[in-house]
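Hello,

Our lab assistant flagged a job as stuck in the queue for most of the afternoon. It eventually completed. Since we weren't sure the result was trustworthy after the delay, we are filing this so someone can double-check. Below is the sequence as submitted and the structure that was eventually returned. Let us know if re-running is recommended.
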Amino acid sequence: MMQAGLEPMTPDETAHGERVARHLRALIAEGGGWIPFSRFMHEALYAPGLGYYMTNRDRFGWAGDFTTSPELSPLFARCLAVQIAEIFERTGGGDLIEHGAGSGRLAFDLLEALQRLGALPRRYRIVDVSPALRSDQRQLLAAAPVPVDWIDAPPAESWRGVVVANEVADALPVERFRITRNGCEAMGVVRSGEGFAWSGRPADEQLSAVVAALNAGLPEPMAEGFVSEWCPGLPAWTAGIGASLAQGALLIADYGLPRTHYYHPSRPNGTLCGIHRHHDVPDPLSRTGIQDLSAWVDFSAIADAGRANGFAVAGFATQAQAMASLGVDRELAAMQQGVSESRRLRLAQAAQTLMMPGEMGEHFKLLALTRGINDPLAAFSFRDFSASL
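-- returned structure --
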């Protein structure tokens, strides 16, 4: 993301940000003057009618705050569809459930690609907490080739098929902590004038135990002064999205790292970031309800939760490696047939962004967890770094 040239907020954004700030100040007062950052992040993103994801605004694409792989090009969905079609072949078909469907663009492009492959799901189901985003998704998917349902939670009944979660786990609220000579402290949020500031206090028993366990498993323990994040909801989220899946796979795509890389000394300030109009916001506690907040994903934590709930780790690779394995060159050539030269160039530029190491190709990863599928998956035929988890 770009770092310089942060744009000022519009009057409407400023007014909305103040409404969110009032809500957060009230919560801090109720908490005795301090709340954990996970509570601040949850409310800033998901407070009904206030949070970043809960209001009508442009978020995706160049007109919004950030660009996801599906928003950049249908190429991502076309490659992912190849993997989904292979899984459907092994499960005898089934449903496709997407968590956090954003604008609906990934769903739209996946269904188009799966129809082309003759591998449409029985139905497409979307789990999304945002009423505003659900409205966008309904408009885009009004003419979908299969039934599309919106559900509030993963289905309780047994089913087979595929779960897709693209850039969802990074938006789960995290705890922020700092290593001290006496163990660690929780970095919470206090009021500072009309704004907010960080404030540390001794970590509770759970956070202290988590950080001690992390340190015990690292080649080089986190040193005094090291600041990072831990996502307390990640194991339950992983278990929840696949709890009733009898046979099939979870395909989780996001920016993140294996645990030993996540808590490496080269990242002494963690991965928490705020994004507004494609720029990094230096202060995650500012622009409340206006900027996106996210932290990179500890993929080892997802893999551990998957194994604990009866899933096998079927593959882990960078986005570039997975797309190469799934025939990105073939898919790009097919998309470029019969289009103008300018369109061909735009498609090639988007492919470069999706694949290049300095762009999405390396920062984004694909993790597959499977149940009832023993054969290798095509996405990891080129590289599989599951051992790093």
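-- support follow-up --
The delay was a queue issue, not a problem with the job. The result is valid. Residues 11-30 form the longest helix (20 residues). The CA atoms of residues 75 and 152 lie 29 Å apart.
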